[in-house]
TrEMBL record, chain A:
PANTHER family: 41-2 PROTEIN ANTIGEN-RELATED, TRAFFICKING PROTEIN PARTICLE COMPLEX SUBUNIT 5. Keywords: Endoplasmic reticulum, ER-Golgi transport, Golgi apparatus, Transport. GO terms for cellular component: endoplasmic reticulum; TRAPPI protein complex; TRAPPII protein complex; TRAPPIII protein complex. Belongs to the TRAPP small subunits family. BET3 subfamily. GO terms for biological process: endoplasmic reticulum to Golgi vesicle-mediated transport. This is Trafficking protein particle complex subunit. Pfam families: TRAPP. The keyword Transport applies. Part of the multisubunit TRAPP (transport protein particle) complex. The lineage of its organism: Eukaryota, Viridiplantae, Streptophyta, Embryophyta, Tracheophyta. It comes from Gossypium hirsutum. It comes from the Eukaryota.
TrEMBL record, chain B:
Transmembrane segments: none annotated. InterPro entries: Longin-like_dom_sf, Sedlin. GO terms for cellular component: cytoplasm. One of its GO terms (biological process) is endoplasmic reticulum to Golgi vesicle-mediated transport. This is Trafficking protein particle complex subunit. The lineage of its organism: Eukaryota, Viridiplantae, Streptophyta, Embryophyta, Tracheophyta. It comes from the Eukaryota. It holds the Pfam family Sedlin_N.
Length: 194, 135
């Protein structure tokens, strides 16, 4: 056939080059896949918090891989050792690669030292999802929270990451905030490193 | 290359996920265990050192007799540790970088559980070819 000679076929995935990562996936394809993921998990669990946990675990696997791949590809093999470094890595590099834009904002919590928030007007994964009233506080952004958790934990900054809706006056749809609460040892190590 | 080397990959949770012993020196039974013991003892040093620098290649961090331990830490805190007697630092750095690429390809497999043993024989073949090339 015409053109088959041009693409080199690799016998094993380990021989294939990693690639520059300039590929894009269609949004509708992803939306279908994600909706199936949520629906499948809905049949497997009894309550909302288990459903959120399952979505988070799915995101965690993605986060672990995204961290390694992006540090190798975009950061020229430099690791993040400081808290602000890893947070800005998540906020800009990870968001840009996954969602095509940097996150709307990164804030430090005022009440607690160990809380940080990444906000988005509307998460890409939630674009085609509507939550029925009887599901209360369920948030499909638990998947994205899982991705952030995967990145942070694998980089050595264990944290509890959750996604919340925050109502904003002037807009009918509430903003989404990813709340990151770091573990004790992270703060102690940050203080030690100065 | 007629040099001894012992290469292990240790996951974030301090579990070895891959081991390769390369060497043409006298293959004593206790040599392999000795090498692994030295590498595991060096893990403590790596843990402290990893937080002081943002580079991945940590060069030579420990010595034992005439063998040197060199370590490369990835973003996900997976450690590539090499026990060797060669002095070719650039060769070792290139070796680590190539193994890092192979490791990322293994990791990207959605069916691979991060932190579990790497059982792919193709990976093993490629790593051994790299040791012959760079060490």
């Amino acid at each position: 056939m015409i053109g088959t000679g041009k693409i080199k076929q690799y016998a094993n995935v380990l021989d294939k080059p990693l690639g520059k990562g300039k590929q894009e996936v269609s949004l509708s394809a992803f939306a279908f896949l994600f909706s199936e993921l949520v629906q499948y998990n809905q049949t497997q669990v009894d309550n909302i918090s288990e459903l959120e946990t399952r979505l988070e675990d799915a995101g965690y696997a993605v986060g672990a891989r995204v961290l390694e791949l992006l540090c190798h590809r975009d950061k020229g093999n430099r690791r993040e050792t400081r808290l602000l470094g890893i947070l800005s890595f998540v906020h800009s590099t990870v968001w840009k690669v996954l969602f095509g834009k940097v996150a709307d904002s990164l804030e430090k919590g005022t009440e607690h030292e160990d809380e940080y928030m990444i906000s988005e007007k509307e998460l890409l994964v939630n674009r085609f999802i509507s939550i029925p009233k009887d599901m209360g506080t369920f948030h499909c952004g638990a998947f994205v929270a899982g991705i952030v958790k995967g990145v942070l934990e694998n980089a050595g900054f264990p944290a509890v990451v959750t996604a919340h809706f925050v109502p904003v006056e002037g807009q009918q749809r509430p903003r989404t905030t990813i709340l990151i609460k770091f573990a004790e040892e992270v703060l102690r190590r940050e203080a030690r490193l100065g | 290359m007629t040099s001894t080397a012992c290469f292990i990959i240790v996951s974030r949770n301090d579990i070895p996920i891959y081991e390769a012993e390369v060497g043409s020196a006298a293959k004593r039974e206790d040599a392999a265990q000795l090498h692994q013991f030295v590498l595991h003892a060096a893990l403590d040093i790596v843990q402290d050192l990893a937080w002081t620098t943002s580079a991945m290649f940590l060069k030579a961090i420990d010595r034992f007799n005439d063998l040197v331990v060199s370590v490369y830490v990835t973003a996900g805190h997976t450690r590539f540790m090499l026990l060797h007697d060669s002095r070719n630092e650039d060769g070792i750095k290139s070796f680590f970088q190539e193994v890092h690429e192979l490791y990322i390809k293994i990791l990207l497999n959605p069916l691979y559980l991060p932190g579990s043993r790497i059982t792919s024989s193709h990976f093993d073949t490629k790593v051994r070819a790299l040791t012959r090339k760079y060490l």
